[in-house]
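To: structure subgroup
Subject: Chain for Friday's discussion

All,

I'm putting the inputs and outputs inline so they're searchable in the archive.
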Amino acid sequence: MAKKGCLVVHGLTGTPANMESVAVALRQKGFLVKVPLLAGHGEKLENLSRTGWRDWYATVVEAFEELAGEADQIYYAGLSMGALLGLKLAIDKGAAIKALALLAVPFRVRPLFRRFVIPGVRYTPLRFVIRSVAKNFEKSVLDPEGRKKYRAASIARMPSRGVFETQNLMWVVEKELSKIKQPLLLIHGQKDHLADPEGLFEIKVKVSSSLVDIVMFKNSAHVLTVDREKDDVARRVVGFFETA
């Protein structure tokens, strides 16, 4: 029997602890799971501010290569920026990735951020002043207990450079989406204040995958892996990988 491995990747400012619900569910089904800590994450805001998407992607590639030496089939599950890194890995590694589950993909952000907030800082002198912003934990996670855990296992502020680098990564990925042929599961919280679900349908149209499932969770926000429906999200990921 082929040994299945899964790379599970957190989002911007996050840590592997944010992905515990998915990682545990996969391990319970016999998957060999690797949950890397992305470059610059896990400690100080200053450290994260010195890194970019290429640094984060290098972490993912290294973890993928380690997993490839231990498993026969490799799957990928990523949250937010970690989902974008998964698309990049699928583009670069092709059939070496069997299927992907992408949660809260920020392929498109909400209009307020896309049209005003991000351009208003990135392309004006404000970029020299606003180096980071406080995260909105209340909107990121609706469940009080999950929010508490997320606060404890992530950096409290969002570095402006990190946001711009995530946008850069999205632009890089968008140009090559047609190269993606793997089965995709796109999961999104209906109460996500940041990532616009319109992006899911753009991805579905632009990739070459024969199977693209889009699943909305009505009682979850952006960080689905610690929110009210985290267990249902995890089960959906595992079920998809078992049948894809």
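Points worth raising on Friday:
The first strand starts at residue 4 and ends at 9.
The chain has a mean pLDDT of 92.

D.
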